[in-house]
Design goal:
The structure is a homodimer of 223-residue chains. Chain A is α/β, with parallel strands linked by helices. Chain A has one domain: 3-Layer(aba) Sandwich (Rossmann fold), CATH 3.40.50.620. Chain A has eight helices and five strands. In chain A, strands 3-2-1-4-5 form a five-stranded parallel β-sheet, with helices on both faces. The longest helix of chain A is centred in the middle third of the chain and has 16 residues.
Chain lengths: 223, 223
């Protein structure tokens, strides 16, 4: 068994499948969630439930990006577009949170160094995704180099690994992998809107539904 | 006049000289301070005073790195070494905060994008410094590439500039530049210890004293 891992956990489908993968390869595993002021607060509850499911430590870092504005995910004045509006809109939609994965990964590799964890897992996906630049493999590759230069571990020749097991998977493959790994998909939340039930209307709901449909699996969160 | 700039402001000598430089080239300028749980809380008061001196907006982001531990700057259980202990100790001393500039820069470039600022200023210095890996120019160079890949601005061919005007200066040159720019050096705080007066004993105090001595200038904060 290798040393531990930090898993960036949003409470969504992808990061939960990442956690399911990480707990099979690492110990201890720490689930790391950033409460950045997202409007869909239910995501944070689901992240806690998933961490509890796996009986792993859950570190929640509060970060007030909401007061900065600039994203429909944090600014209540901006409407979350429907999936068809997102498809017809700019390549990078208004649900983009500037620098989100850059900030999350920076915090996660720092935590990995403090905890002496071998790896950081991030559930980015660049195929069935919303077009955010910080989900692309070229961003993650560059981040690895930068993080190795920033941290003591890199200087000492033992850089924190940044693992993105889903980056080249279709959403249907992520669903299948989650089922294979017995991940608690029923606990996960994808909807960008913060109601008690998913809206079935936003880009995140549409991507999730497409994934389950193409995998031929009923979404256990909708039963 | 170019567009605005975000200046990472700790309240220390270097970041204050950076701000003095930035206000001559950019408008509006936003001073950006991270309250990461540093023991030397007086640094935060000095940052506010410097921002007020320049009548610029001051954005303070709270980030709880102290609960993570791992650094003498955030963990009251760890002693801040004296300058001679630091010189005799490991290349990266225990005052190192894992990922600090990586995290600060990630937040600052995100804020720059939200505010449509052209540049981020960071007062890192790789000559008279404490040996932190995330103060080296190779880290900053790599970060520029990563940030351009992470942010909308980079995708659109207008990447946020990351400016480090002090990176190749000696501390004495930074002092001289500060005096030339009429920076409010009397307001700045360098000491790693959080008392009401600098300790004259830690690495930060030693570097500051050496800089003023070599510049032949009396430290206005000590009068």
């Amino acid at each position: 068994m290798s040393r531990g891992a930090i898993v960036v956990l949003s409470g969504g489908l992808d990061s939960t499948v990442c956690l399911a993968r990480a707990v099979r390869a690492h110990s201890p595993v720490v689930a790391f969630t950033v409460d950045y002021g997202q409007r869909h607060r239910i995501e944070l509850e689901r992240a806690a439930a998933v961490a509890e499911h796996y009986s792993v430590e859950h570190v929640v870092q509060r970060l007030d990006l909401a007061s900065w504005g600039g994203s429909a995910l944090t600014d209540g004045e901006l409407a979350v577009p429907t999936a068809s509006e997102a498809a017809d809109g700019p390549a990078i939609p208004i649900t983009y949170v500037p620098g989100r994965n850059l900030i999350f990964l920076s915090l996660a590799v720092a935590l990995a160094e403090v905890r002496d964890a071998r790896a950081v897992y991030l559930g980015v996906n660049a195929l069935d995704y919303s077009g955010y630049p910080d989900c692309r493999p070229e961003f993650v590759d560059s981040f690895r180099t930068t993080a190795a230069l920033a941290l003591r571990r890199g200087v000492e020749g033992d850089a924190v690994e940044v693992v993105t097991p889903l980056v080249q998977l279709r959403k249907a493959d992520i669903v299948r992998l989650g089922v294979t790994l017995d991940a608690p998909l029923a606990l996960t939340w994808s909807c960008y809107r913060g109601d008690t039930e998913p809206c079935d209307d936003c880009d995140a709901c549409a991507l999730r539904a497409k994934g389950f449909a193409e995998a031929g699996i009923a979404d256990p969160a909708r039963r």
